[in-house]
Design brief:
about 425 residues; binds zinc ion; alpha+beta; Thermophilic metalloprotease-like; 2 domains; 8-stranded antiparallel β-sheet
Length: about 425
């Protein structure tokens, strides 16, 4: 991996800002655009310990916006590792359901949810994959009531990122520790679109652009999408769920608040049909999953289901992942992202889905977003399944887009329309 140049030689107004001022901009965008925090709303925040300066800025902006109360839960990588090193076997089938129940209660009571991403993506790389899988299943089960309110967009929520030393080392392995962290911060600022003169206004504009694309795709009512690479390693038909709805550029949550669930976001995404995915696909970027790295994924789908899965590294993790439950072998999301997105243009591999999924078109194994179906947020599980929406404890995005990928929209009668050529919107 080479280390690309991040900042342009010309000094723009953004470059003239101090680090604290840049951090403050990110915090402001997170609260006003990401969360759209409403006056009087409670806010739950999760963050790595290293994110404390950003947490404090976010907390300030939240109270200025009228937050009722901001409560932050901190995570700590070395403490997570200590569990893998010293905890007894029973620990790996346990998750604090009581805490997740309380969080779900807070959500139902009107709380908004913000997460700061920044944990070391390779934290668990050397740990026992069986223990990781068990801990993930236990955590997913315990958090289901709270997660459901998020995947159904009942509440306003968002994720932003914070540069941390271990993550920065992975992204910029050739740099000294401090330089790597500041390079990662600059990359996060740029990718998060806070480097203009008026980030809040520019985010509104960006959201509107994505919305126009989403409206266009929704008007087409495609039956499926066809992804094809020039070298033939990807030749995949992704059927779209009946009544599928494209989304992107923000969403109005069930509580009526307009939010941008991901900062950054560049994608237009929808719900595939869980039984109508066929062909082969090769990942265009490595996947970092819960502290493990999975490289060069290639899989074959038949009638919606993965029947063959390979990876040059982390194949074991991949196979355990898709064995989580019945829905883990099927798709819950398909997303189109132009190759020219700022994140893709940075040339940086972030080892973090929040960024990497916005650098390339992607698919996700597992749970579908019910909001990506017409009237879906009011449907029960059975009704959703009937339309083709997948259900699973997992939702894992992986990148399949690149400058070598063409995408066609295919209508029910077989008529095709080019959507992307060499990774760009037609
Ligand atoms: Zn996505
Ligand atoms: Zn996703």
């Amino acid at each position: 991996m080479s280390s690309p140049v991040i900042s342009a030689p010309v000094r723009t107004r953004f470059d003239a800002l101090s680090f604290d001022e840049k951090l403050d901009r990110l915090a402001e965008v997170a609260v006003k655009i990401g969360l759209g925090l409403r006056e009087g709303q409670e806010m739950l925040l999760t963050a790595p310990m290293e994110a404390l300066p950003l947490v404090r800025r976010i907390t300030e902006h939240a109270y200025k916006a009228g937050a009722l109360l901001v409560t932050t839960f901190y995570g700590d990588d070395p403490s997570v590792l200590a569990r893998y090193k010293y905890a007894g076997d029973a620990s790996f089938d346990y998750a604090p359901e009581w805490l997740q129940t309380a969080i779900a209660t807070a959500f139902r009571g009107g709380a908004a949810r913000m997460a700061i991403a920044g944990a070391n993506p390779a934290l668990l790389a050397g740990q026992d994959p069986a223990k990781i899988a068990r801990a993930n299943v236990a955590a997913s089960k315990a958090s289901k009531p709270a997660m459901e309110l998020i995947t159904r967009h009942e509440i306003n929520w968002t994720i932003v990122a914070c540069a941390t030393p271990e993550w920065a080392k992975l992204v910029f392995p050739d740099e000294a520790a401090d330089a790597a962290v500041s390079k990662l911060w600059e990359a996060i600022f740029k990718a998060s679109r806070i480097d203009g003169d008026d980030p809040v206004a520019q985010w509104k504009e960006h959201g509107a652009t994505l919305k126009r694309r989403v409206d266009l795709l929704n008007a087409k009512r495609f039956h499926s999408l066809h992804f094809r690479s020039q070298d033939g390693t990807t030749d995949l038909t992704v059927g779209l769920a009946d009544e599928h709805l494209w989304a992107g550029g923000g969403t109005t949550a069930g509580n009526g608040v307009y939010c941008q669930p991901n900062i950054p976001t560049e994608e237009c995404f929808t719900t595939p049909h869980k039984d109508r995915v066929d062909g082969v696909v090769r990942a265009s970027k490595p996947l970092s999953h819960q502290g493990s790295l999975i490289e060069n994924i290639s899989v074959r789908f038949e009638s919606g289901k993965i029947v063959e899965a390979h990876a040059t590294a982390g194949e074991d993790v991949l196979n355990r992942l898709i064995a989580t439950d019945e829905g883990a072998r099927r798709l819950g999301e398909v997303a189109l992202v132009p190759h020219s997105s700022p994140i893709s243009e940075s040339g940086i591999l972030f080892w973090n889905t929040l960024f990497d999924e916005n650098a390339a078109s992607h698919i996700a194994l597992g749970q579908a977003y019910s909001t990506c179906l017409i009237g879906g947020e009011k449907m029960g599980e059975e009704e959703l399944a009937k339309l083709g929406a997948n259900s699973s404890l997992i939702h894992v995005d992986w990148m399949i887009g690149s400058a070598a990928i063409d995408v066609d929209g295919v209508h029910a009668d077989g008529a095709r329309e080019p959507l992307m050529r060499q990774g760009e919107w037609v």
